[in-house]
Amino acid sequence: MSSVVEVFGLLLAGAGAVFFTAGTVGLIRFPDVRSRLHALTKADNLGLGLVLAGVAMLMGSLTAAGVLLLTWVLALAAASVSARVLGAVEADNIEPGRLEQDGADAAPEEAADG
User: Fold this and answer.
1) Residue 15 region, left (φ>0) first, then alpha (ψ -120 to 50), else beta?
2) What is residue 26's three-state secondary structure?
3) Residue 36's closest CA among 25, 46, 47, 45?
4) Which of 5, 30, 40, 82 could form a disulfide with 35 if both were Cys (CB 3.0 to 4.6 A apart)?
5) pLDDT in tens, 50-109
């Protein structure tokens, strides 16, 4: 029975590593800060949860599982606060007229001019 638990714990940790990798790729490849934050917080929080669940299974201790669960909950709280702060900072740094340059408001202005 212990070998099944070990294999399942390793599978969970491996799946967590895949999510960490996906979050890192999203951080590098996505174009704007909000998309990067979304990819990073979602993928990394799920990846951390899976890794910690796998480690808890491999350790086989209920006390260790409780500490790892507390670690994950605190990391979730820290990620949400930091993403909120970074998103607010990015929103304050948007230049006036930037949306018009990107073409988001081009249609209403052209209709008013014509």
Assistant:
1) alpha
2) helix
3) 25
4) 30
5) 999 999 999 988 999 999 999 999 988 888 787 777 777 766 665 555 545 555 544 555
Residue with tokens 């970074």: 86
List the structure tokens of 110. 């052209």
Tokens of 46: 């799920």
Residue recorded with tokens 């890192």: 24
- Sign, CA dihedral 55-57-63-69, equals positive
Query: The pTM is what?
Result: 0.70
Classify residue 62 by its DSSP letter.
Answer: H
pLDDT confidence of residue 92: 64
